[in-house]
Amino acid sequence: MLEHAISETDLDRIVRMFDGSNLIVHGFDGVIQRWTSGCEQLYGWSASEAVGKVVHDLLDTRFPADVEELRTEVRNNGSWTGQVGHRRKDGARLAIVTRWTVLELGDPDTLIVQSNNDVTLMQQVEDELRERQAHLQSILATVPDAMIVIDDKGCIASFSTAAEQLFGYSAHEAIGQNVSMLMPSPDREAHDGYLDSYIRTGRRRIIGYGRVVVGLRKNGTTFPMELSVGEAVAGGRRTFTGFVRDLTSRHRIEAELRQSQKMEAVGQLTGGLAHDFNNLLAVISGNLEMLEARLAEPGQLSLLREAQSAADDGARLTSQLLAFGRRQALAPKELDVSALLGEFSDLVQRTLGDSVELRTIIPGRRMSAMADKAQLQSALLNLSINARDAMPAGGRLTIEISGVEIDSDYAGMYPAIRPGRYVLISVTDTGTGMTSEVMERAFEPFFTTKPTGSGTGLGLSMVYGFAKQSAGHLQLYSELGEGTTVRLFLPRADTGKDSHPDEQQAKDAPSLGTETILVVEDDARVRRVTVGRLLTLGYSVIEATNGIDALKELEAGHDVALLFSDVAMPGMNGDELARKVRERWPRVKILLTSGFSEPHAAEKEIQAGAGWLKKPYTASEMSTRLRLLLDARHGCDPA
């Protein structure tokens, strides 16, 4: 800026000296008085065309603020610098960094000298970089694999959205920390040594290929993961990018597949043995019958009949083995399962005794399935006896019949079941429950936790075989101290006789929403399906793997409209979480879900107004239940 007055001659000399630069001289009224050759090349107008024009009109200037405000700043401060938009003679737009400087001529006239620099190309490059960065961020925010970038010291430089969800740390918490925080011992202590060794020697352990390792979440839980690491060197700086895939679901599916294959092998073995044993029993029983016809002495006949009774027991035992091995001949026909249970309930109650209350929940319409009536009755009786034995001090047994539709999302979590319509028979007791170890072996033939002589260990295995042979499915849910639910899925017999308006309503388009739902589920597969369904319905979703993380999400101030939580979770269960949420955030609606037919562990919260949704559920059932809760007035019981 020139701080003293100059003459017109001096101004002309200055303009000629900087003729190659992009200088424009104009008054506060904007009328152009000087226009250099540099401006002619930049804008396309000659000096004769430009001089006398109002500069802002000629160049169609786009200011970052009101032009009068800028002129006031120039008068007060003597200069102004900023970025504006200009138009060339050919119509092209330019990004210009301009500096305005006040110039005094020694008389009342005051001029402004514009010094303009074309930054259009730089602006385009910056815009492209921002666009690419936004595109990259959108990819990283949506891919299921987590991405973590570290420097050569092992410090985290980037932490994707998927990494936040997987490990439980926010990007703000993770960036700048050593990546070993995501590893359990002894990998945590050894990591920096591995990294240092690679940088010094080039000896690779993980870099360049993937391997299965163990990850450590913020809440202290570990999980299997596949880690692939890539290396990049730019500007003398070395970075490592790790892609992490959670293998929890895959390992669980593989374990279920191995268990299924094991049960298949055991079934083939037991079926074969039972078939051969039946042949032996046929020989023994036949000869005993012939001997009985020839003996006349009462004492000998008594011994013979005892032997015949033992042979009959053996035949029944082999029949159960054949059922498990799926070699028992069935006589399937269309059955109204609701009617069958109504007829059969008296026998079940007599089997249970006076100390166990029997509760049956039967829909008021026909529920048809293709099944062997005798085998289904036997299966229900076996499940009832098992439930009775699990309640030595008495309790309640609930048998519920319902219609369900398994979609591809749910079937994807359980390879043994196919999508379709099923009659679901849920048998729930309030007994002692099972440990995870017992649950893993519950369907194995001859496995029992009962005292010696109190059972063969074939009850559940027979039901398992019956379900498989009937093209159905069997699921087991149990919690120590809470009870057990066995769920028998039998394919629906679609004859058209069991249609009902409620079922048509269930097939209607699910209800949509825009509220924020906090999903709390420790099973990663179930959580992914639930979140996917909610997003499809239009809801915003926040995920948590346990009760502690769910409370932290609420404490963070998220505008959560509804808590959708599993009941059976490690640590803080869904009932305890619901109670804390109800006390601290009373306006947050609560929907609890579980594989149990009855909400034993959450009865108080259900009574306090929480909703209940039994697994498995369809997207339509879930959306309907959500809207009932969200649309209800605060404090009303939506049940």
From TrEMBL:
GO terms for biological process: regulation of DNA-templated transcription. This is Sensor protein FixL. SUPFAM superfamilies: ATPase domain of HSP90 chaperone/DNA topoisomerase II/histidine kinase, CheY-like, Homodimeric domain of signal transducing histidine kinase, PYP-like sensor domain (PAS domain). Its EC number is 2.7.13.3. PROSITE patterns: HIS_KIN, PAS, RESPONSE_REGULATORY. It comes from Rhizobium leguminosarum. Residues 516-630 form the Response regulatory domain. GO terms for molecular function: ATP binding; phosphorelay sensor kinase activity.
